[in-house]
Amino acid sequence: MSVIDANLLIYAYVETLPQHTTARPWLEAILSSSTRIYLPWNSILAFGRLTSKTNLFVDPYTIQEVIRIIDSWLQRSNVSVIEPGPRHWEILRELLANHDVKGDLVNDAHIAALAIEHDATLYTADRDFRRFAGLRVINPLA
């Protein structure tokens, strides 16, 4: 099982970012594979929030484009939204308490807890995730 962080989704769709040329083919390949892909709501919503910001990108996506892209992911047979299970708070609480988590890292801890609870590997280019014990992290752009 693979969980995908927002940064890889954004890099794959924003052509002006330097990571685009590596992220787009990787994302297309993994989405087209038989690998089970899980997208956290945090990643989906961050993609929509950031790629539609007019003060962040020269040519941001419209919300209609964002919806079309997200629909294209969720309509694939190997892609699902990952949800917290019964151990989520226990795992998240431990990550928050033991890894100097504050501010924006709270969302990262939530995504890490989802991946740990579901015994999944997190794909991200964000080095902050390496702080979480028990989380398998792969940077496909490295």
Mean of pLDDT: 96
Please name the CATH architecture: 3-Layer(aba) Sandwich
Approximately what portion of the residues adopt beta-strand conformation?
Answer: 5-15%
Q: CATH homologous superfamily, by name?
A: 5'-nuclease
Number of helices: 6
Amount of helix? 40-55%
Order of helices and strands: EHHEHHEHHEE
Strand line-up of the largest beta sheet? 3-2-1-4-5
User: What is the β-strand count?
Assistant: 5
- The separation of the N and C termini measures 20 Å
Biggest sheet features? 5 strands, parallel
In the CATH hierarchy, the third-tier topology is known as Rossmann fold
Basic shape: globular
| Oligomeric composition of the shown chains | single chain
**Overall SS class:** alpha/beta
Work out the count of structural domains. 1
The gyration radius over C-alpha positions equals: 15 Å
CATH class: Alpha Beta
List the helices and strands and how they pair.
Blueprint: E1 2-4, H1 6-13, H2 20-32, E2 37-40, H3 41-51, H4 63-74, E3 79-82, H5 88-98, H6 105-117, E4 121-123, E5 136-138
Parallel strand pairs: 1-2, 1-4, 2-3, 4-5
Helix pairs in contact: 1-2, 1-3, 3-4, 5-6
